[in-house]
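// run 5 | inverse folding | seed 20
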């Protein structure tokens, strides 16, 4: 392909709308639309994410040669038609799918409406799961691998797999609608009282507190097939025939996915405000266990079939960090790579990669996730100056550090002294995890820090764990597996003798969802953790996303607003240090 080829990848009219930009096959920028719209999982056309990518590349839409979309209305067309003719789904379900199809077809019009020189290139539609596979493999460091995608649904399939080597990527098999591990997990998430799109991580956290008592009851929902596939017992679900409302133009909205038969089998569903009982914990445990059975059943079959030692994984189910942490032990694969935006946002990247690799050379491996907006110190200072009166009224002090090492030492000492620090630095992360540039940091040694963070800032369920960001070179000393987990997408057991030293990040079952921090990937964050380690002997900090029941902050105004409306102790904006006086806390 020409070296001046510029490809804009987009995920539109589906949850986690996003955009990315490749120039000559190299990633320049990537961001989710939710960060600009301030609506979680925003699902419309990603106009602001597109604007950011173009700005970062210093071009306008007229310079783009291809727009790659991670949807194809032609994919699995005859299977869709056969299902409609045989399954007779409800008119409302068909109408919702037709509406979404029309929205995708409207992308050309949306591009025309963007400012600047008009787009004059070509639009390429890439099948949803092919885009997921491409995002997983082409971002990985592997020369060859098995590529696997598992999610809810996209283009009439819920899972797909193939072999990948060099620039070649096959799509060899699929699991088709209406069978889906993503729908199974989402339906159980709704049933257990977590109704919002993306709440599956709450069920995953709750599962650690459960027991196997209800496994058999949940097991009947999913059947394992001899070929490595799986099937839902459809009488327990509504997504395939029922009159369910869907909305994919703003915040993702949809009705319950489980049927009255599931309520008959498992008992009354939990309401969002109902107390969590042991029955709910046990059902969460069983859901995670049944999911893992089917997931590993598929991966074990693919490992035997292809023989490759490496696995590149994508799709919304690739965010199940508990299962990811068990893949190497349970499947025979010896290497795993999960790209930071493994879900639908990452489909934008996969679509762009799929177009580039039709003729272009192999892309560079993604070793960090810092592809979003950044802000110069002058812009940070201007935001603080504009709000100077409000800052003073809250009893805060403000200073600027000219020496970065001095600032890092001060931040490390503040964390070691028990303060909660908002850390805003460099380019925003790509994907749902805060990885040291848009993070809230605290001391992992404090047993009370979870309650403190929930009281001061996060205001979330008490059972949800916080994660450690760990110096890469110290992982083997503190965890039972010496692994690279740069994107916080695997749960690993903490060494038993270390667990009481880091209670704030050790989950109920002795595990932690760690992020490994390499010096080359993020020198400043690595230096901060190293400074904390020098003070405390602990080579990690507690890291949670910089937000308060909203998308992760993108710009300095949002970071400052979050600091001012919560009880955070310190805000570090680049080289600026904002601190509440003790009397004001």
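// decoded
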């Amino acid at each position: 392909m020409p070296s001046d080829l510029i490809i804009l990848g987009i995920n539109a009219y589906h949850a986690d709308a996003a955009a990315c930009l490749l120039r000559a096959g190299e990633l320049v920028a990537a961001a989710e639309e939710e960060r600009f719209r301030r609506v979680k999982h925003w699902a419309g056309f990603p106009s602001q994410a597109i604007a950011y990518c173009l700005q970062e590349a210093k071009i306008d839409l007229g310079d783009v040669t291809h727009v790659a979309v991670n949807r194809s209305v032609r994919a699995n067309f005859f299977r869709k038609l056969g299902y409609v003719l045989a399954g007779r789904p409800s008119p409302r379900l068909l109408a919702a799918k037709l509406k979404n199809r029309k929205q995708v077809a409207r992308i050309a019009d949306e591009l025309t409406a963007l400012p600047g020189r008009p787009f004059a290139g070509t639009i390429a539609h890439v099948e949803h799961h092919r885009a997921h596979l491409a995002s997983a493999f082409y971002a990985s460091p592997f020369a060859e691998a098995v590529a696997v995608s598992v999610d809810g649904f996209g283009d009439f399939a819920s899972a797909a797999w193939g072999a990948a080597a060099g620039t070649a990527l096959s799509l060899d098999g699929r699991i088709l609608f209406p069978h889906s591990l993503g729908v199974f997990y989402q339906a159980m998430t709704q049933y257990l009282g977590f109704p919002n799109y993306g709440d599956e991580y709450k069920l995953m956290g709750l599962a650690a507190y459960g027991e196997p008592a209800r496994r058999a009851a949940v097991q009947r929902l999913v059947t394992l097939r001899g070929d490595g596939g799986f099937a839902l017992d459809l009488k327990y679900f509504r997504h395939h025939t029922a009159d369910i409302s869907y909305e994919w133009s703003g915040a993702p909205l949809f009705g319950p996915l489980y049927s009255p038969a599931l309520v008959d089998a498992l008992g009354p569903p939990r309401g969002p405000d109902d107390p969590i009982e042991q029955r709910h914990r046990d059902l969460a445990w069983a859901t995670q266990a049944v999911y893992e059975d089917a997931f590993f059943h598929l991966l074990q079959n693919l490992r035997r079939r292809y023989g490759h030692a490496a696995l590149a994984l994508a799709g919304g189910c690739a965010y199940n960090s508990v299962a990811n942490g068990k893949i190497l032990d349970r499947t025979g694969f010896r290497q795993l790579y999960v790209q930071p935006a493994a879900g639908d946002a990452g489909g934008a990247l996969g679509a762009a990669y799929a177009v580039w690799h039709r003729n272009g050379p192999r892309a560079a491996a993604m070793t960090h996730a810092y592809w979003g907006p950044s802000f110069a110190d002058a812009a940070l200072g201007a935001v603080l100056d504009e709000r100077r009166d409000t800052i003073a009224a809250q009893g805060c002090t403000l200073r600027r550090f000219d020496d970065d090492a001095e600032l890092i030492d001060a931040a490390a000492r503040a964390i070691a002294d028990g303060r909660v620090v908002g850390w805003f630095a460099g380019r925003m992360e790509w994907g749902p995890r805060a990885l040291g540039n848009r993070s809230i940091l605290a001391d992992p040694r404090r047993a009370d820090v979870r309650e403190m963070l929930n009281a001061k800032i996060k205001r979330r369920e008490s059972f949800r764990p916080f994660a450690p960001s760990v110096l890469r070179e110290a992982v083997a000393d503190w965890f039972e597996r010496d692994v690279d987990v740069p994107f916080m997408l695997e749960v690993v057991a903490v060494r038993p003798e270390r667990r009481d030293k880091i209670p704030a990040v050790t989950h109920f079952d002795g595990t932690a969802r760690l992020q490994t921090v390499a010096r080359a990937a993020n020198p400043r964050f690595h230096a901060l953790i190293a400074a904390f380690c020098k003070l405390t002997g602990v080579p990690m900090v507690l890291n949670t996303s910089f937000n308060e029941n909203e998308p992760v902050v993108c710009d300095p105004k949002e970071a400052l607003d979050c600091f001012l409306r919560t009880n955070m102790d310190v805000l570090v904006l680049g080289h600026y240090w904002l601190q509440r006086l003790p009397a004001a806390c």
